[in-house]
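User: Some background: our group keeps a shared notebook of sequences we're curious about, and every so often someone picks one and asks for a predicted structure to add to the entry. Today it's my turn. The entry only has the sequence so far, pasted here. Could you supply the structure so I can complete it?
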Amino acid sequence: MTQDEIEAIAQRPTYCKADGEAVTLSRAERDGLVAIARDGRLLERAAREALGFVSAAEQDYADGNLRAAEELLALALAPFDAVLAKESP
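Assistant: Of course. Here's the predicted structure to add to the notebook entry:
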């Protein structure tokens, strides 16, 4: 889902329902927004885990174990790379 598509949904006029205002979404729009939310949760979890990997990598680097530090940093970045790859055409 592109930024323009998200913005179009955000600007869509509402209509009244008995329990408040509502906006109609197509199934594709709903699925796209759910995917964004899931990616956000994945990235949040990955960021927390990455901090642990980075701390361990810093220690390995300080100890001169560059190979282990490099592997830990690659593990830290993998979830971010996966989400970014989904956005690439």
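Suggested note for the entry: The first helix runs from residue 3 to 10. The chain has a mean pLDDT of 82.
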